[in-house]
Write a structure and sequence with these properties.
With 52 residues, the chain is α+β, with helices and mostly antiparallel strands. The protein contains one helix and two strands, in the order E-E-H.
C-alpha cells in the first residue's frame, strides 16, 4: 500500500480510502451493514492505525 504524509500533522495516510458515510448516521444508511464493511476492510487490509 502506498502512503502520503499530511503536511500539517506529518501523519501518514494511505492513498486508498474506504467510504464510511453509513457510520455517520446519514439518512437511509444501514449502520450494521456499514460496520460489517469496515470490519471486512480491516480484516483484508489490516488496521491502518496500528504502530508500524
Amino acid at each position: 500500500m502506498r502512503y502520503r504524509t499530511l503536511e500539517r500533522t506529518g501523519s501518514p495516510v494511505s492513498e486508498n480510502g474506504h467510504g464510511m458515510w453509513g457510520l455517520a448516521g446519514w439518512t437511509g444508511s444501514d449502520e450494521e451493514e456499514a460496520s460489517a464493511a469496515l470490519d471486512r476492510a480491516v480484516h483484508l487490509v489490516g488496521d491502518p492505525h496500528r504502530a508500524r
